[in-house]
Known about the structure:
Radius of gyration: 23 Å
Number of strands: 4
Order of helices and strands: EEEEHHHHHHHHHHH
Distance between the termini: 66 Å
Strand order of the largest sheet: 1-2-3-4
Shape: elongated
Amino acid sequence: MKITKIVNNNIVTSADEHGMEIIVMGRGLGFGQKPGFDIPDNKIEKIFRLSSQKDNQKLIDIIEDIPLEHIHAADQVISYAKSMFGDKLKDTIYLSLIDHINCAIERQKNNLLFQNPLLWEIKQYYPSEFQVATQSLNILKKTLGISFPVDEAGFIALHFITSEYDTEMQVTFDIPRLIDEILHIIDKHYPEGFSKDSIHFERFITHLKFFAARVLQSKQIPDDGDFLFRSMIREQYKQSYECAVDIKSFIENMHHIPLSEEELIYLSVHIKRITMK
């Protein structure tokens, strides 16, 4: 494997067996070297293979000025997360989380602590991501000797969520807020309450996470023309349909996003399931 470009003393680029660009990292790997020189196998610590040339270049731009120890620590976190989430994590996790962890390390060193305004919502609606993020703090402590507050687990979890749902970070921030707003509307329609420990509620929260991501990115399920099914839901699930209509009105008034009838019907069905006695 030969060097194609020197990024810094510890990072170079090369090409794999298919001619695709790869990023090769190792202490002193680029020091005193030139393009065309062989890369010693015993110096290679990590090879990054992202899915596109564009993402490769973004990653190079990000890690070019980040200390090697910080990249190693972030990579351990990502490797652990990938072992837990598998293919659900997109390559973008490298672009966002390496940079975030580096910034978090610098903030911690300078005693600049940020509160996470969504910590409760993240714990409630994304327990798996939060659990992995909490373990990530243990990885960072073991690797770097730095202890982070629990708020940082919430921030790291947001990066996992953004990668899983393939959204922008602002959309990821808005999803739990929208879920809160929807549940508040349902509570008003059903003052007698409903079980939040049932499998139907768990499925509803899963539906809401994808629903909110679709709505906030204008990627809603289109109407399919099944008028008979819609009429049946409106007639047989009157209370849940009225509740869904209120949710539709709220979204259109507050977020200025029109809601499709198909999304409205799916909401009605889920609301009916969680409120059945």
